[in-house]
Each structure stands twice: as structure tokens, then as C-alpha cells.
Amino acid sequence: MEKYHLRDILPIIGEYEKGPGSLIPLLHEVQKKIGYLPKEVQEFIAEELGVPYSQVYSVVTFYSFFTMEPRGQHTISVCTGTACHVKGAEDLTKSLKDKLDVEEGGTSDDRKFTFNTKRCVGACSKAPIVMVDDDVYGKVKP
Ligand code: FES
Asked: Quick check: CB of 45 below 6 Å from ligand 1?
């Protein structure tokens, strides 16, 4: 992922009305565009929308789908729910951490993958489950 430029964000901001009502949809759009919401970007959005930076920061930190850290091109998640745990989620987790050289929540150096764990994703009969973005893979072996 290349570094963003604030000028890339300006056209997105231009599509929204000024004021706090635009904050959440705008943050979504910007995160979709550049992958995350660093402080500099939050300050820029606050200034452009005419809302306090503290308000932008509160929203970004309140909702778990916003992130201030860069994420990889793809997110790999291991389900650690009970069924998956019993079927070897721990080995999968260890193997992926080693392979990607990351801790949970971390992103590989090449910015291709972010790794994390999830609670039961509702596919227990195919445990253990690994998700790559929105795709679900069952009976995965390390
Ligand atoms: S415990 Fe993993 S899908 Fe249910």
C-alpha cells in the first residue's frame, strides 16, 4: 500500500456536507480509499468539516471497524470459537503468525496481510475456520 496524500481525500470530503452529521459515512469512505485513519487525516477531516478534532478522534476510537493503523491488502482471520479451538485453531494461529511474522492485529511488512482472530463465525461444522477477507475456508490445516 502506498502512502496516501491528503489531496486524494479532498474530493471525497467535497461530496459531504459540512458538520458532524457527515462524519461516520465520510470516515468510512476515506478508510476505504486509504486503508486507515491516521491522526493527520483525522485532523484534516475535522478542519474541512468544521468539527472539533476530539469529536473525530472519539468516533474513530469508538467504532471497531475504524482503524488508525495501516491494514494489509487482505485480512486473514482464524476463528477461535469453541468448535474451532477444539479442532486446532491454536496451531493455525501459530502457523500464520510464524509465516507472516506478525502478532495478532499486526500487518506483514509487505502490507499484503493483516492477521487477527475472530469469535465463532457460524460455520462450526467445518471447523477449523480461516477467513480471508469475506471468504470462509473450512477444515483448514496449518
Ligand atoms: S467456532 Fe469457529 S465457526 Fe463456530
From this structure: no
pLDDT tens by residue, 67-115: 898 888 899 999 999 999 999 999 999 999 999 999 998 899 898 999 9
Percent share of the chain, pLDDT over 70: 99
Cα-to-chain-centroid distance, residue 88: 25
Q: Is 136 in the pocket of ligand 1 (CB under 6 A)?
A: no
pLDDT tens by residue, 33-74: 888 899 999 999 999 999 999 999 999 999 878 989 888 889
Enumerate domains of the chain plus CATH numbers.
Answer: 6-62 (1.10.10), 74-137 (3.40.30.10)
Tell me which residue has its CA closest to atom 1 in ligand 1.
Answer: 81
Assess whether the C-beta atom of 124 lies below 6 angstroms from ligand 1: yes
